[in-house]
Amino acid sequence: MPHDDPDHPHALLPPEPALRVKALETILTRKGLIDPAALDEITDTYQNRIGPQNGADVVARAWSDPGFRTALLRDADAVVTDLGYYGRQGEHIVVVENTPDIHNMVVCTLCSCYPWPLLGIPPAWYKSDAYRARAVREPRKVLADFGVTLPAATAVRVWDSTAEIRYLVLPMRPEGSEGMDVAQLARLVTRDSMIGTGLPGLAP
Fold first, then answer.
1. Fewest beta carbons less than 10 Å away: which of 63, 75, 157, 203?
2. What's the CA angle centered on 123, arms 118 and 124, to 5 degrees?
3. Catalytic site residue 108?
4. Strand partners, 169
């Protein structure tokens, strides 16, 4: 295995993920294979201009328009494409809806597959070995770690995101949000609520 070979380039990289990324970026920049300015632009786009605002807009529309919600649950690809929220790392999206009976949570057990066009860059914890293993084995404990306690009668369903299918959770609309428009509703939606490790809510 390459990772067991002390002479393999990966073995020379630091163990911490952030340091490994920086080391790879430095090597690729020195070889003229990447432009740091272009990387910064891509990061800014996904972190600040896309995610998770696009996903929040989709959720808010689903909360306020029953027809939109029905179409989203039936064929999310068509709906998000019409909105322009489509592209690399978001080729096939499936939306799963939270209800009083079922709470959905998303994980990628193999790596970190994630709907970038809707949620932006995945958080570090989503890519961690601990989350990837525990989300499947003990989802309620993981939710508790995130501060989410569900009624005993609510089942937890875990969806394994892959390179072929990425999932977006449609959380339940918070009580007290009646009369809000789409823009106001979108501000209630958090990234974690669209992964299933959080709940949307009214600001205190």
1. 203
2. 155
3. yes
4. 96
Tell me the CATH number for domain 51-195: 3.90.330.10
Average the pLDDT over 87-104 and give the result.
Answer: 87
Residue 93 CB coordination number (10 Å): 24
Residue 111 is among the residues annotated as catalytic for this protein = yes
pTM of the model: 0.77
Q: What are the extents of the domains in the chain?
A: 51-195
The question of whether 113 is a catalytic residue gets the answer yes
Tell me whether residue 193 is one of the annotated catalytic residues. Answer: no
Active-site residue, from 64, 112, 161, 193: 112
- Strand spans (E) along the chain: 93-97, 102-107, 155-160, 166-170
Cis peptide before 174 (omega within 30 of 0): no
Residue 17's pLDDT is 52
Q: How many CB atoms lie within 10 A of CB 29?
A: 13
